[in-house]
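Posted in: Structural Biology > Protein-Ligand Complexes

Title: Requesting predicted complex, heme C in pocket

I'd be grateful if someone could produce the 3D structure tokens for the following input. Sequence and ligand are given below.
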Amino acid sequence: MSSPSRNGVAVRPGNGIATVFVLCLLGACAGGKESEVIALTGGNPERGKAAIRAYGCPSCHTIPGVFGADGLVGPPLGGIAKRVAIAGVLPNTPENMIRWLQNPPAVNPKTLMPNMNIPESDARDIASYLYTLVD
Ligand code: HEC
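-- Reply #1 --
Done. Output follows.
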């Protein structure tokens, strides 16, 4: 039997926090460099920044590097690259971030963040920008 975590990234259910920890140790979630966030998400951070404006995220979130993004409805997104959880319910991994962005109420029906019908390609771009936010 091969271990499910042989490649260094744990995949067992319930092991999400450990997964994030492993990613952080590898420098993945702490990196924030453009090449790293592209590798992590398959998205492009510059396009992501534009998409963040286009989808109106700034009206609800304070987002470093995005002009006018000083919304206070949702949590500030500075340092999101290093946070352990997404919205308190998902381990902060690239795939979970992309999933969250695409449809938050599908993850947590009680969340106030709306479903903006974001296609996967845009969600990847947005996630890549968010992972540049290390502080
Ligand atoms: C109508 C207001 C609103 C809009 C628009 C909105 N959000 Fe949110 N967002 C929230 C709220 C409220 C939460 C907290 C959700 C929760 O904890 O259930 C949240 C949570 C998040 C989180 C998790 C933050 C954390 O600290 O765990 C991320 C990431 C996020 N939003 C990104 C975005 C992005 C990117 C956009 C634009 C595509 C966006 N949001 C648009 C209200 C909004």
